[in-house]
């Protein structure tokens, strides 16, 4: 559904994107993560036909964003990371305005708009001015606007940015429903653990380059060579930490009030042997397990931070 080949964007000597390659199948929810200034919004703006690439090709549903921008716009719903100024419009007027922009007849809009407001949980705000909505409500209204013409693809740039926890949960539930409807969705976000619950695949971009791409579980598996073991013992915790420092497959040991955290380079067999050794040393082990690697761990492991150069 989305196909990007050797995409680059330069501003003089500054490279915002460097030879990006990306394929997102139809019906996939793709999470786009990276530090501020890494190139996420630039890539999304090119896909939304708002910016021309310096080189390379980007296609949406088979249409080149440069050669066939009108066809691409029919197929996408783009939600930028800012809402815009529409304070003097009511929510229904706002949606009518955008529906008319897509040449949707008023009789059809009259049926469609209540359905969209119900989808984004704003039915009770149909006659409220946009200025009277909370930030979370504005984000949901903006999402409804993106859906007015029933696009195949949704491009959502930081849809949960600045939202409180309840508003983020509401946004996440709406996105899950859209996923069930078969929409292809590309989302950029810094709320990494929540993004992991929604996406099928992620792409990590840094300095304008794609540094990792694939299913979350696959990328996590790649990092298991740097696993962290969490050990809790009844007593003598500091002594255990000191003894573990000398083990061959241990690269680092941290002791805190939750237990001993061991950076371990061995496999499952070596992990069992380490537990047996700890017990043979006379320590009463309360728990011994491998810490789960979440999406935030993946992000921090892969990236160093900083914008493109």
From TrEMBL:
<keyword id="KW-0067">ATP-binding</keyword>
<dbReference type="InterPro" id="IPR027417">
    <property type="entry name" value="P-loop_NTPase"/>
</dbReference>
<dbReference type="Pfam" id="PF00005">
    <property type="entry name" value="ABC_tran"/>
</dbReference>
<dbReference type="InterPro" id="IPR003439">
    <property type="entry name" value="ABC_transporter-like_ATP-bd"/>
</dbReference>
<feature type="domain" description="ABC transporter">
    <location>
        <begin position="2"/>
        <end position="232"/>
    </location>
</feature>
<comment type="similarity">
    <text>Belongs to the ABC transporter superfamily.</text>
</comment>
<keyword id="KW-0813">Transport</keyword>
<dbReference type="InterPro" id="IPR003593">
    <property type="entry name" value="AAA+_ATPase"/>
</dbReference>
<keyword id="KW-0547">Nucleotide-binding</keyword>
<protein>
    <submittedName>
        <fullName>ABC transporter</fullName>
    </submittedName>
</protein>
């Amino acid at each position: 559904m989305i196909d990007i080949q050797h995409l680059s964007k330069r501003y003089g000597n500054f490279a915002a994107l460097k030879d990006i390659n990306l394929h997102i199948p139809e019906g996939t929810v793709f999470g786009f993560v990276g530090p501020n200034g890494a190139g996420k919004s630039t890539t999304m703006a090119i896909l939304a036909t708002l910016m021309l690439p310096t080189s390379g090709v980007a296609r949406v549903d088979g249409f080149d964003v440069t050669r066939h921008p009108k066809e691409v716009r029919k197929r996408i719903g783009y939600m930028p990371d800012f809402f815009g100024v529409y304070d003097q419009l009511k929510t229904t007027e706002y949606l009518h305005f955008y529906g008319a922009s897509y040449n949707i007849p008023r009789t059809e809009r009259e049926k469609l708009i209540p359905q969209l407001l119900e989808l984004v949980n704003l039915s009770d705000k149909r006659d409220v001015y946009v200025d009277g909505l909370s930030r979370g409500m504005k984000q949901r209204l903006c999402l409804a606007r993106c859906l007015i013409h029933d696009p195949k693809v949704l491009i959502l740039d930081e849809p949960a940015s600045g939202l409180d926890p309840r508003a983020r949960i509401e946004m996440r539930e709406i996105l899950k429903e859209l996923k069930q409807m078969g929409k292809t969705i590309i989302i950029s976000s810094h709320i990494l653990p929540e993004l992991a619950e929604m996406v099928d695949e992620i792409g990590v971009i840094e300095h304008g380059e794609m540094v990792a791409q694939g299913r979350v579980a696959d990328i996590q598996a790649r990092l298991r060579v740097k696993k962290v073991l969490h050990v809790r013992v009844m007593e003598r915790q500091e002594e255990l930490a000191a003894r573990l420092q000398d083990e061959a497959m241990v690269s680092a040991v941290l002791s805190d009030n939750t237990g001993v955290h061991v950076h371990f380079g061995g496999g499952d067999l070596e992990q069992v042997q380490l537990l047996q050794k700890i017990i043979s040393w006379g320590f009463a082990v309360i728990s011994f397990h491998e810490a789960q690697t979440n999406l935030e761990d993946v992000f921090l492991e892969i990236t160093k931070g900083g914008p493109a150069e």
